[in-house]
Specification:
The chain is α+β, with helices and mostly antiparallel strands. Helix content is 36%, strand content 24%. Helix 1 packs antiparallel against helix 6, helix 1 crosses helix 12 and helix 6 packs parallel to helix 10. It binds histidyl-adenosine monophosphate.
């Protein structure tokens, strides 16, 4: 018997995981929205040259990791290994450099494909959420992109993250640096792995990314880009770090950070999480790219962006228990108590669904005990019991699955019941959120107005009239 299995490096995202992913993307999209970015979508595959020209011939991605094939028209096609190149292709092809307001600010959530060796936190199909700010030289846009990333991680509640940041200079600094690297690694040519021997010829900067030897001593002693930076690049870097300091962003300057894609210049960064458990590698990375727009046929326009690895973010959030309360749930679970009530129960379920009440129902004739267990597993808030009495009197019996309170009401009152109950619930939740209770100072310290209508609301005059609710 043939066993059908997942292709290596891919995963099934079952509903329990899918809801976590949906939550993470919801938070990330919201933050991108606060920062003025709009969603963009480009094709899953591009003509291969889009990636070879941008990501770089000497990069691991282009050399070893792309899913490239000839289509039936004999064109070389590649499943996108990252998002930036396709977006810049679209930016140039649609002549947005001439028609759109710059910087052109977009965000995306893309599945990308890399033929890497799978391990924990490393997949062949992965999701990246990223933002790109296209067509800006301003240092403030470097800061904006990094702070957007920083704010996103805070909104997700991720702890112990920090940025590794570096400046890899402009073309001029880098060509001097590449020569110095070539001179240095010439002494170790025979020790280099076979890939690095090719990198040595094509782009010696890529040697620093070597996954095999980068922890060896002679790698650590290699020349540093910081010694080759122009005064302008040094100043740019310092000014950026000053802004990050103002916002208390936790970062480390890592002068060996060059990133694995060829298109970067000046600012580069990655986010890591200090963790006693397994290290999954960077959870996100990005940088400034000065030549990508012109390399893909547009004018000379500098840009900056980053992307997160969503699977790694989910792994970290699971380790840090940040998904409490994020689960699939329904409002109503309808139980036909006898075979004869199936048709009536079906109509009740459909009525609720058509009126935006999430509802499920089972017609398989399971015992009531099993149906109650299923309702629990589905995290149903209410159970709607439908027996012959209910059917005859055009009513339903609703049981609150948490409090176990039960009432029988006419079907005609069902929507009002849910509306009232949800409003009640909303109010309760608001009272548990300090931030929803804000006190307005009327100018007189002893006479301030509280927007919270809770019974025992206390306003702390010594703490900027911060109001907190108790006993709700
Ligand atoms: P990247 O560093 O290649 O950058 O990928 C970004 C993030 O994707 C990584 O930090 C990591 O979290 C995740 N990632 C990469 N490969 C894998 C994998 N095999 N399995 C799981 N997660 C992975 C880029 O792709 C650039 N396009 C970022 C950028 C945007 N630069 C400027 N704009």
């Amino acid at each position: 018997m043939i066993k059908y299995t997942l292709p290596r490096g891919t995963q099934d995202i079952l509903p329990d995981k899918a809801i976590k992913k949906e939550y993470v993307l919801f938070v990330l999209k919201n933050v991108a929205d606060f920062f003025g970015f709009n969603e963009i979508q480009t094709p899953v595959f591009e003509n291969t040259e889009v990636f070879t020209r941008s990501v770089g011939e000497a990069s691991d991605i282009v050399n070893k990791e792309m899913y490239t094939f000839l289509d039936r028209g004999n064109r070389s096609i590649t499943l996108r290994p990252e998002g930036t190149a396709g977006i810049i292709r679209a930016f140039v092809e649609n002549k947005l450099y001439a028609t759109a307001d710059l910087p052109y600010k977009v965000y995306y959530s893309y599945d990308v494909f890399r033929y890497e060796r799978p391990q924990a936190g490393r997949y062949r199909q992965l999701n990246q959420f990223g933002i790109e700010s296209i067509g800006t030289n301003s240092l403030y846009h470097d800061a904006e992109v990094i702070l957007e990333m920083y704010h996103s991680l805070n909104e997700l509640g991720i702890r112990d993250f920090y940025f590794k940041i570096n400046n890899i200079g402009d073309e001029g600094c880098r060509s001097k640096y590449k020569l110095a690297l070539k001179e240095y690694f010439a002494n170790y040519l025979s020790d280099l792995c076979s890939d690095c021997k090719i990198r040595y010829e094509k782009n010696p900067l890529r040697i620093l990314d070597c996954k095999i030897d980068s922890s060896k001593d002679y790698f650590k002693k290699a020349p540093k880009i910081s010694d080759f930076l122009s005064d302008d690049s040094k100043k740019y870097f310092k000014n950026l770090l000053d802004i990050l300091d103002e916002y208390q962003v936790n970062y480390e300057i890592d002068d060996s950070l060059v990133r694995g894609l060829d298109y970067y210049s000046e600012t580069v960064f990655e986010v890591h999480v200090k963790s006693e458990e397994q290290d999954y590698g960077a959870i996100g990375g990005g940088g400034r790219y000065n030549n990508l727009v012109s390399d893909l046929g547009g004018p000379q326009l500098s840009s900056i962006g980053y992307s997160f690895g969503i699977e790694r973010i989910i792994l970290i959030m699971e380790t840090q228990n940040l998904f409490d309360g994020i689960k699939n749930e329904i409002l109503a679970y309808v139980m036909p108590l006898e075979n004869t009530t199936s048709s009536y129960a079906f109509q009740v379920a459909m009525y609720l669904r058509f009126n935006q009440i999430s509802t499920d129902i089972d017609f398989s004739g399971k015992s009531i005990k099993s149906l109650f267990k299923i309702a629990d597993r589905k995290n149903a808030k209410y159970i709607i019991l439908i027996g012959n009495d209910e059917m005859i009197s055009n009513t339903v019996t609703i049981k609150n699955n948490a409090t176990k309170e039960q009432v029988t009401i006419p079907v005609a009152d069902l929507l009002d019941f849910f509306a009232n109950d949800l409003i009640k619930e909303d109010n309760n939740e608001n009272h548990h959120h300090d931030s929803k209770c804000s006190c307005h100072d009327n100018g007189n310290d002893n006479d301030h107005e509280c927007t919270c209508d809770g019974d025992e609301c206390e306003c702390d005059e010594n703490d900027n009239h911060h109001c907190s609710c108790h006993n709700h």
